[in-house]
């Protein structure tokens, strides 16, 4: 019954018993036998059997609503566009972890249910008896301090004790321990989960009203739009009222955000405004909870889904609107298989479902700017002005993380009891080879991108075309013997900030401090507490948070990203500066934004400082057009890796030659060496064509041709369609 061309990757034929004939429609989830096991499958299509051999029979249809038809089409499209196994793409449409939850009930029917019903935890409360020892008294004190009830595991940690002690106290009656099912619906992402009162819509400014009119029209027409709104222009309010408009038409909405853990405030507002119908689709749920959310969404009980990139596959039956918030954010692209880009997938989903797709950002991507009709929110909703940006030429400053002006601004903000943000742009730091006196950067003569220093070989290498040269000791531009390769580290930055403003609390936001559930919310709450504070961190401090009272924002190493060997490095640097500047001076406070750069006269830095989004994107489009980069072409990257260094070098070279020979019309770069990864040699080939499928077909065919079947296990060959890091 299942017919697919890429047949070896998980699409199999089964016979359908007569009694299942009606239920076994495309999209239905089924239990089927596979190699002696019983596994979960999705019916892709019903066809007459294509071969005459004996077919295994379906065991049953799972008692859960089928995957909506447009979603089934969507994941099949993902498999073909991104060259990923069909099975791994079908999985995207299921509640995550569902496969492990397949169970047969006593009456022979099938359901999805995790082995242990939900996730329960041991909760401790004070008991009636007096504690027996001082140690136990301390435990109770910790418990009382935390409000009287706490997860036992957390209590152990806080009181510095063991589970054994808690059990002993439980037996003696000084503690009561109960198993409680944790409330892990999406709600505990919200800083204040209980506050779900419906709050009223804001009085719109005229531009917002116009934007909502356009979005509502797009819902009717099933069109895509770019909502280009400066930071603080009130895009969230537009999203909320657009979702409400869709709801009025009986249509559901999906709101995609870059990283669910980084956007507690947005989630809270959505929940407060839109009430019970909101579902948060995220990876923190147990399999059973995800199945429950799947049902809620599939049945229409929840008609608003909020989530990170995977929520683009939420099983919404009557989809009217997909919103992609902060559409410039790189996290929309998944960097493991299937390597889909949720922004591209959202577009396709909108097309299949006849839904509107709205991309929102203060700094849209070049591709979006080029392709879509735009709706602008050119002013801040509260009437405040965008802050003026001062660019500091770091070549005129003494060595160190902070320039004098930024140091002084932090000091003054601290003295006035105000808040500041300092962003350390980490992108590209260790890689750069630039002149400290004139700002010259070693670039590839053919590719217009910066060269990367490979420590192993001590060569500067172009990751696009493979060009390499030896590092220079003397700057070819100004003759100074002042070529540097490294930037500032987080620690030295923290020390410098602490020295500049000893009274301010320092709050560090990075991968370590934001890993736990709700961690970002707590950091932001801590930052918002009264009194002077500095929020320090990498890229994530610039992400869409609506922070009060920030009067100073600084970017350290603003143009470090320009060293990246990537044609998108200008775009990223631009977006970083504009986004960070947007975090300061909301609610009308006067604010200073200080950008430290080594090439302050660079076009990117100048335009970002002037909030010149349209100018910048216009120029980028011209540059990309001249060089044939996206959006004027598609790139497809092939990565060849393996332990056998010589083998990888030969195979990747042979694939490149093969493509050049068979497809002279294609542009192909490489193989270029990448850093070795876990002892594996890696080479990358980059093909460019008008259609992604043309480039992908050519690379796939060449690889199949070059690598003998017997050798397939020696090399890992990965295809990345529309790669974001090139
Ligand atoms: P953006 O996402 O565009 O950067 P937000 O949606 O976070 O901006 O809005 C910025 C601030 O402006 C928020 O505090 C929001 O409550 C406020 N705001 C939005 N729209 C209005 C409005 N029409 N009237 C008053 N305040 C508004
Ligand atoms: Zn120089
Ligand atoms: Zn090059």
Q: Can you walk through the features of this model?
A:
It is a single chain. The protein has 726 residues and is α/β, with parallel strands linked by helices. It folds into five domains: 95 residues, PriA, 3(prime) DNA-binding domain (GIY-YIG endonuclease, 3-Layer(aba) Sandwich); 66 residues, Arc Repressor Mutant, subunit A (Orthogonal Bundle), CATH 1.10.10; 172 residues, Rossmann fold (3-Layer(aba) Sandwich); 177 residues, 3-Layer(aba) Sandwich (Rossmann fold), CATH 3.40.50; 88 residues, Ribosomal protein S10 (Alpha-Beta Plaits). The protein contains 19 helices and 30 strands. The strands form eight sheets. Strands 11-12-10-13-14-9-15 form a seven-stranded parallel β-sheet, with helices on both faces. A six-stranded parallel β-sheet has the order 16-26-25-17-24-23, sandwiched between helices. Strands 28-29-27-30 form a four-stranded antiparallel β-sheet, with helices on one face. A hairpin with a 6-residue loop joins strand 20 and strand 21. Helix 1 crosses helix 10. The longest helix has 18 residues. The two termini are 40 Å apart. The N terminus is likely disordered. The protein binds adenosine-5'-diphosphate and zinc ion (2 copies). The site of one zinc ion (ZN) has 7 residues, from loops. The site of adenosine-5'-diphosphate has 16 residues, from helix 7.
Tags for this model:
Arc Repressor Mutant, subunit A; 726 residues; 5 domains; binds adenosine-5'-diphosphate; Rossmann fold; GIY-YIG endonuclease; six-stranded parallel β-sheet; binds zinc ion; alpha/beta; seven-stranded parallel β-sheet; disordered N terminus
